[in-house]
Protein 1
Amino acid sequence: MSDTNDERRPAGELEAAVMAALWAAGTPLTPSSVQRELAADLARTTVTTILSRLHEKGAVDRMQQGRGYAYYPVHDAAGLTARRMHGELDRDTDRETVLARFVAQLSPDDEQVLRRLLEADQT
């Protein structure tokens, strides 16, 4: 298998595909299993590298299986997105301004959802 096409994929596309495979499986997967689930022309070493990077980022955890590891997601899709949003917020020292600008850019529907969530959290 060749990795020549992998270099042309947008950053994060392979990580997203690997995460989708792990979520769909519902059970820890080895790199070879992920490779089969993706049904793409990816080398096992490429899949292993992606899984290792996701592990370093805290998106997946792993357990010993034979001489290697089986990987599983730490969060569901919504939890991972929330974690990324927190990460972005943590990168800026002026959290109030970042949050104010985020809220100002919400659609009216999203603003209502956020208000409901905040009000429910108060009770």
Note: The chain has six helices and two strands.
Protein 2
Amino acid sequence: MDGSIIDTDWTGTLSTGSVELADLNSSVAADGTQDKLDEVNSKLEDGSLHVFDTSTFTVKGAKLDSYEADVDTDADYTPDTEVVSDGYFHESEYRSAPYFDVQIDGIELLDTAF
């Protein structure tokens, strides 16, 4: 907005104000829902909570403790950057386009023709 250059692979976050959670429809939400959302939002902003916390899911029955993503986006999509560290998958931290393509145990894929 101020005319300054934005890096090609810059990714905004809740704390930068470029990602926002939608307002809650309080007429249908359970009591306490907004308080919990505010708590979670605050933790996401300060970095104490991560969406892809690897202690909260498994992949093929095991904890996900290593994953190389194709961050430099070469033509063959060759994995080149370790994106699991500090206990979470660093989605969109090393490039702006999403690269989380892990199939978490217990999630049923509705369409696998891709």
Note: Residues 33-46 form the longest helix (14 residues).
Protein 3
Amino acid sequence: MSDQGGRAAREREAARWFDDEAGPVVRPYAMTRGRTRTAAEGRLDLIAQVIAESRAAKTAEDRTLSPEQVEIVERCRDVPLSVAELAAELDLPVGVVRVLIGDLLDAGLVRVSRPVPPAELPDEQVLREVIDGLRAL
């Protein structure tokens, strides 16, 4: 291949990694350092609530965190957000967000709260009987 042909191929490749509106495109596996799973995978279903820990006050200054991780902590500082909400707001695949949250969990910067599954909630009839019993006292 001639030098001119090689340069044209490199320019085509570079154009493939650039979006006119967004700028350079970063592949999801680059954000997660090639990882697709995290040790906390079982705790990070779509409705799991992510809450920033109080010790995560200076995440913007932490150079070990990616910009996406800083954004996750900042968004969860005032109000808990679900994994699905974070993925939608950050416009990232859910798998990538799970890995990033897993890293934040390991660092102690966030905690995850899972809602109680409906099967584990008390039956409405049992609650009514308890209320009726209390009223009878």
Note: The first strand starts at residue 18 and ends at 19.
